[in-house]
Amino acid sequence: MSPTLTTTIAFTADHVTKDYPGHTALDDVTLEIPSGHVVGLIGRNGAGKTTLLQIAAGLVLPTAGTCHTLGRRSDLLDAPELTRLGLVMQEARFIEWMTVAQHLEFTASFYPRWDRDLQHRLVAELEVSPKQKIAQLSTGDRQKVAILLGVCHHPALLLLDEPMSSLDPIVRKRMLAVLLERLREDGCTVVISSHLLDDVEKIVDWIVALEAGRIVENSAFDDLQESFAEWTVTAPDGRPLPAFAAPFILAQQRSERLARLTVRTREPGAAENFAAAHAVEVQARRLNLDEMFPLLLTRNPAAR
Amino acid sequence: MAPLLVINPHNGVPAYRQIMDQIKLQIATGVLPAGTEMTSTRGLSAELTLNPMTISKAYSLLEHEGVLERRRGQTLVVRERPAGHAETSRLAHLRQHLTEAAAVANQLGIPHPQALKLFRETLDSSKPCPPP
């Protein structure tokens, strides 16, 4: 590996737009992914996640704007960068008539850093049968092979598009362990798009949310967890509660004596201060990624 | 030494916080005595299937707070604390739980003497604390 390729930024997008006939998949996206992070790319179907990953991998070029992957502009990507990329795309394309073993052999031939020991271990851990023909694999087994082909060359940047949607919970857990192992051993950067927020939540340290081709959130996951909360508000004396208004209140549901506020604030003691200011009791509960998801997609500039 | 940590990635509390709280609790209850070597960042990441960044964030914050210290360059160990410190942190931990209970009591409009009586009864009916 040439030292000139080392970079502390794994991927950058600078005002990137991608138009397809009839629709805009990415709309003026500016993003920087520092090395060593595990980024959860989340958003609804059609939000632009796959397009962003394809652009990062150099599979498609942006209509406007520039991208750099592993320090190289995406329209100039060549073997030194491409052999350090790991790609697991949603609908992986294989050479269908090959057996799994043949395909591994074939793919390995492109990569100087292919690790056979790792390959054999992962074949066993993910319970892949090397003698089976690709064409005969189940959807889940195809995903496992795609993952094998994506990680055995110690990629510096691993791009995963819905890599686990067809795997059972046991294999998904092993997959997460495999990803974390690559992270520890190779110090690679991982960008993972998934609807399985439960899984994403276990390994990501950064969240990028896309909505209709635009970035609506780009934050450390810890920060998100520490700023979103649900407050259950009651008046100790039983008086009816008013409608509350504050810039950090994203939503509220109220009955006569109880209000549930969804808030976003990092101010220390926000709940206590709110309780004191309104003479109410506040019980705060943190939100998980599943609960945050719809809130992240409705941009609320006042809350930032 | 591998602390037996149970991290729930779905309860909304950042995993690094859960690790910190549980290690502090284990120290307060004597499960992790002073001088205990902590599992390495890599080791704990493998054990808990968590991002190594999460582990190192928890460890470095614990180091910053003086709960852990680095010895011989790398190994993180539980720091020796002055006598009485363990009790203070045990009480701090209990206070956390009681703060929640107090909020519930107030929300339900339970008068304080009645709430205190209930806490005393609950204490008495659970396993008795060994005499100091």
Q: Give the overall average pLDDT of chain B.
A: 86
Give Rg of chain B in angstroms: 18 Å
The gyration radius over C-alpha positions of chain A equals 23 Å
| Largest sheet features of chain B | 2 strands, antiparallel
Q: Return the CATH topology of the largest domain in chain A.
A: Rossmann fold
Low-confidence region ranges of chain B: none
Strands in their spatial order, largest beta sheet of chain B:
1-2
Q: How many distinct domains of chain A?
A: 2
- The order of strands across the largest sheet of chain A is 6-7-8-3-9-10
Rounded mean pLDDT of chain A is: 90
The CATH architecture of the largest domain in chain A: 3-Layer(aba) Sandwich
Count of beta strands of chain B:
2
Describe the structure.
The complex is a heterodimer of chains A (304) and B (132). Chain A is of the alpha/beta class. Chain A has two domains: 210 residues, 3-Layer(aba) Sandwich (Rossmann fold), CATH 3.40.50.300; 81 residues, Alpha-Beta Plaits (2-Layer Sandwich). Chain A contains ten helices and 14 strands. In chain A, the strands form three sheets. In chain A, strands 6-7-8-3-9-10 form a six-stranded mixed beta sheet, sandwiched between helices. The two termini of chain A are 42 Å apart. Chain B has 132 residues and is mainly alpha-helical. Chain B contains five helices and two strands. In chain B, strands 1-2 form a two-stranded antiparallel sheet. Classes of the chains: A alpha/beta (304), B mainly alpha (132). Chains A and B meet through α6, α7, α8, β11 and β14 of A and α2, α3 and α4 of B.
Compact description:
The complex is a heterodimer of chains A (304) and B (132). Chain A has two domains: 3-212, 3-Layer(aba) Sandwich (Rossmann fold), CATH 3.40.50.300; 223-303, Alpha-Beta Plaits (2-Layer Sandwich). Chain A has 304 residues and is an alpha/beta fold.
